[in-house]
Write a structure and sequence with these properties.
Layout (H helix, E strand, L loop, with lengths): L1 E8 L3 H12 L4 E5 L6 H5 L2 H18 L16 H4 L3 H18 L3 E4 L1 E6 L2 E5 L6 E10 L3 E3 L12 E2 L13 E5 L3 H13 L2 E6 L10 H13 L3 E4 L3 E7 L2 E6 L4 E4 L1 E4 L3 E3 L6 H4 L22 E3 L10 H17 L12 E3 L5 E5 L2 H6 L4 E7 L4 H6 L5 E7 L5 E7 L3 H13 L5 H5 L9 H11 L3
Parallel strand pairs: 1-2, 1-6, 2-3, 6-17, 8-15, 9-10, 9-15, 10-11
Antiparallel strand pairs: 4-5, 5-6, 7-16, 12-13, 13-14, 18-19, 19-22, 20-21, 21-22
Helix pairs in contact: 1-9, 3-6
C-alpha cells in the first residue's frame, strides 16, 4: 500500500493548484489523471484549443479590415479549421511541459490511471485494465472536471452532430451551423463561426443571452452578434435532431425547423463523477453529476474535497485554480478562507470579449443599493481610434455616497486584461477617485477607467 498526505484526482487547473498548494505546505502529494497527458479538458479539448482557434479567427478578421490601414493582404490557400488551429499543438505541448515541470519542482508525484474509492481513506488506481494498486491518504481532492452534456434524443456519433469537444475536430469551415445553448460556450462559438463567415443560428431556451451579465452588456453583445449576421432565437427549446444527407435538421418545440450543415449542442456540461465510487461513501451528486460542497469545498466526507467544473458554476479555469488552492489550504491548515466570488473576475471569450467583476445594475437594484453609473466607449479613447476599434465600452458602478467601486463591466478587445485594474481597486475597497487621480499610459484602453470615472462623478 502507498501512503500520501493528499491524493488529487485530476490534473486540470483546479487539481494542479490544489496539489501545488499542499506541496508548498510540506505535504506528500500524488496527482492521478486518466489522460495520457496532464492538463485535463482545459488543456486538451476546451480552453486552450478553443482560444487558439479564436485568436486565429480574430487575426483573420483583422486582415479583412486591411483597408483601414491601406494595406493589401493576399490569402494564398483556402482556410480550414485545421489551418486556423495551427498553433494549438505547439501551445499545448509547451503548457504540458510547464505543468509537468511544476509538479516535479514541487515534489508532486504524477501518475496515469483510473481512480475509484475503495473506502473513505483508500483509493484504488488501475491502468489499462491491469491490477489495482491501493493508495491511502489523509485528504483527497476530486478535480475530475466535466464533459459536454449530451441529450438522449441526439445522435452524437453522427459527424454532423457536434458538442464542444468534437467541434474542434472539424476540418472545413461550415457554411452554416446551428448552435443550441447561448451560455458561455455557445456564445463564444457563435461569434467564432460568424467571423469565419458561416451563417449561424443561435438557439437559446431563455429570453436573454448570458443572463448573469449586466443587462446592458448582454444587450450590446446581442446587437454585435446580430450585426455579424447571427440569427438569435430566444425562448426556443430543441425537441429533436434529424440528420438528413449533407445537412442536419433541428426541430424546435415551437414547431420551427432549422436546417444547417452542422448542429453544435452546447447547452450545459456534466461532472465527471461516474466510476469514482461516491455512492458508497454517501457523497451525493445532482442531476448533472456535479458534487455538492460546503463553502470550504468539503463534500459529505469532510476529508474529501471537490473543486473546479465537477462542482458546477462558475466552471471557469481561473476560479477553479483558486478553489483548488483554498481547498488544499483548508485541508492542511484548517484555515477557513471563504471563496470571494464577488471579487473573482469572469472572462468570456466571445469576439469581442467580455469581462466583469462585482455586481450588476440588476443586483444592486434588487438589493436596494443606491448606486451611480460611469461609462466610457472605445471610440472616445485615442487607442480605439488608432486601431479602428470603436465598438467597445467600459462601465463602472459605484456607491453614490461613498464613491466605493461596486462593479466593473467591459465589452471589447482586451476586456479580460483590463478588468484586473478594477478588480484590484475593489479588492482594497477603493473608490472611483482612484481612477480620476491616477495617470494611465497614453494611448491605451486603460484610459477608459478615467473617462468612465469622470462621467460617473459628473452625474452626482
Amino acid at each position: 500500500m502507498h501512503t500520501y498526505d493528499m491524493v488529487v484526482i485530476g490534473s486540470g487547473p483546479a487539481g494542479e493548484k490544489a496539489a501545488i498548494q499542499a506541496a508548498k505546505l510540506g505535504k506528500r502529494v500524488l496527482v492521478v489523471d486518466r489522460g495520457t497527458q496532464p492538463g485535463g479538458s482545459c488543456m486538451h479539448t476546451g480552453t486552450i484549443p478553443s482560444k487558439t482557434l479564436r485568436e486565429s479567427v480574430k487575426y483573420l478578421s483583422l486582415m479583412h479590415q486591411r483597408t483601414l490601414y491601406g494595406i493589401s493582404v493576399r490569402q494564398d490557400h483556402p482556410l480550414t479549421v485545421d489551418s486556423l488551429m495551427h498553433r494549438k499543438r505547439g501551445a499545448i505541448s509547451s503548457l504540458v511541459e510547464r505543468l509537468e515541470s511544476n509538479f516535479e519542482r514541487n515534489g508532486v508525484d504524477l501518475m496515469r490511471g483510473n481512480a475509484r474509492f475503495a473506502d473513505p481513506h483508500h483509493l484504488e488506481i488501475s491502468q489499462d485494465g491491469e491490477a489495482k494498486d491501493v493508495y491511502e491518504a489523509r485528504h483527497f481532492v476530486i478535480a475530475t472536471g466535466s464533459r459536454p452534456f449530451r441529450p438522449d434524443f441526439a445522435d452524437f456519433d453522427h459527424p454532423r452532430v457536434l458538442d464542444s469537444d468534437t467541434v474542434l475536430g472539424l476540418h472545413d469551415i461550415p457554411k452554416s451551423i446551428t448552435i443550441i445553448g447561448a451560455g458561455v460556450i455557445g456564445c463564444e462559438y457563435a461569434t467564432i463561426f460568424a467571423h469565419m463567415g458561416a451563417k449561424v443560428n443561435l438557439v437559446n431556451p431563455r429570453q436573454l443571452l448570458l443572463d448573469f451579465l449586466d443587462l446592458e452588456i448582454s444587450n450590446a453583445l446581442s446587437y454585435l452578434m446580430r450585426d455579424r449576421g447571427v440569427r438569435i432565437r430566444l425562448g426556443e427549446t430543441l425537441k429533436a435532431v434529424e440528420p438528413e444527407g449533407e445537412s442536419v435538421l433541428a426541430h424546435l418545440e415551437s414547431g420551427k425547423v432549422i436546417r444547417s450543415d452542422y448542429l453544435l449542442y452546447a447547452n450545459g456540461r456534466s461532472g465527471n463523477t461516474e466510476g469514482l465510487g461516491l455512492e458508497a461513501l454517501g457523497i451525493p451528486v445532482n442531476q448533472r453529476s456535479q458534487i455538492e460542497v460546503n463553502p470550504f469545498f468539503q463534500t459529505a466526507q469532510p476529508h474529501i474535497y471537490a473543486v473546479g467544473d465537477v462542482i458546477g458554476f462558475p466552471s471557469l479555469a481561473a476560479t477553479a485554480m483558486d478553489q483548488g488552492r483554498l481547498a488544499a489550504k483548508h485541508a492542511i491548515t484548517g484555515v477557513e478562507e471563504e471563496f470571494r466570488y464577488h471579487l473573482m473576475p469572469t472572462g468570456i471569450y466571445t469576439i469581442p470579449e467580455i469581462s466583469f467583476v462585482g455586481q450588476t445594475e440588476e443586483q444592486l437594484t434588487h438589493d436596494k443599493v443606491p448606486y451611480e453609473v460611469g461609462t466610457a466607449t472605445y471610440k472616445e479613447i485615442a487607442r480605439g481610434q488608432i486601431v479602428g476599434n470603436t465598438s467597445g465600452r467600459l462601465k463602472l458602478l459605484f456607491d453614490r455616497d461613498t464613491l466605493k467601486l461596486l462593479g466593473v463591466h467591459i465589452l471589447g478587445d482586451d476586456a479580460t486584461d483590463l478588468v484586473h485594474i478594477g478588480a484590484a481597486v475593489m479588492a482594497f475597497g477603493g473608490t472611483i477617485e482612484y481612477f480620476i487621480d491616477t495617470v494611465f499610459n497614453y494611448p491605451t484602453y486603460s484610459e477608459c477607467y478615467r473617462v468612465a470615472a469622470l462621467n460617473g462623478y459628473n452625474r452626482l
